[in-house]
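Homework help board

Subject: predicted structure for assignment chain

Our instructor gave us this sequence and asked us to write out the predicted structure in C-alpha cell form, then describe one feature. I got the C-alpha cells but I'm not sure how to describe them. Can anyone check?
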Amino acid sequence: MESTRDIKNRIKSITNIKQITRAMEMVAANRLKKAEGRALSSRPYTQNITSILSNLVGSTPEKAHFCKQKDEVKKIMVLLITSDKGLCGAYNTNAIQHTVRFLKENSQKEISLHLMGKKGNIFFRGRKYTIGQFYPETVEEIGLSSLKAGDNKVSEIVAKMIESFEAGTVDEIHMFYTKFKTVMKSDPARVRLLPLENIDADSGENEGKKALQGDCILEPSSEAIFSKLLPKYLECQLRQAIFESLTAEYAARRVAMIAASENAEEIIGELTQVYNKARQEAITKELLEVVSGSEAMAG
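My C-alpha cell output:
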C-alpha cells in the first residue's frame, strides 16, 4: 500500500490538474460564445449568396463548366479543416476519419490534400497520402483574415482553387470540416466546392432557357456578375466552414475539460478515502506500539 506521503502528493498533483482543466474550460466557454456568434450570424449571408448564384446559373451557359460534373474524374483536391491544438475530445478524429473514408473510396484517383490545422497535417504527413499544401497559419488566423482589409488568406486560397479548376489541374474540389449544431453535438461534413454542388446548370437543348426568378434586368451582364460572384460564393463557403469548425472545436474542448474536471474530482475523492484509511491505520499501529511498550515496561 502507498504511504500517506505518496497519496498526499498524488492528491496535490491531481488538484493542480483540476485547476488547469477548470481554467481551460472557462477559456473555451468564452471563445465558444464569440465563435458561435460569428458562425450563426454568417449563415444567412452564405445562404443568400448561394441562392443568388443558383439563379444566375441558367443565365450564364458559358459558365456551365463550373456547375457540371465531369464524366470522368481523375484528379481531386481535398481541403481538410482540423484544429491546431488538442484536448478537444474526438473533434479531430471524427473529421480525419470522415476524410479517410472518402480517400479510400476514391483511391484509384489522384488526390491532393490541402490541410488547414496542425492536427490534420500531423496525421497525414507520415502516411502514403499526397499533401499538396499545408497552411502554417492557424485556422482562426485564416478565418479572421477574411474580415480584415489587406491580407485576405481566404481570397488567396479561393483564387488558387478557381485557377487550378479552370486550368484542368483538378477535376473536383471537396472540403471537409465539422459543422456545429449544439454545444453537445457537431458532425463532420463534406461539401463539393467545384463543380458547384446543389446548383444545377442547364445543358443541351435547354441551355440558356433557365432565367432568374422574377423580372430582373442584369447590368452589365449575367456573365460578368457570375464571374464576380463565384469567388465571393466560394469565399463564403470556406469562411463559413472555418467558423463552424472553430465553434465545434471550442464546444468539444469545453465538454472535454468539463469531463476531465469531473474525473479529477472523482479521483481526488477516492484518493482522499484511501489517504484517510492509511492515516487511520498508521495511527492505530502507533497506538498499538505505545500500548505494547507500556505493557512490556509494566511487566
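Reply (TA_rk): Your C-alpha cells look well-formed. For the description, you could write something like this. Strands lie at 75-81, 110-116, 131-135, 172-182, 185-194. That's the kind of observation they're looking for.
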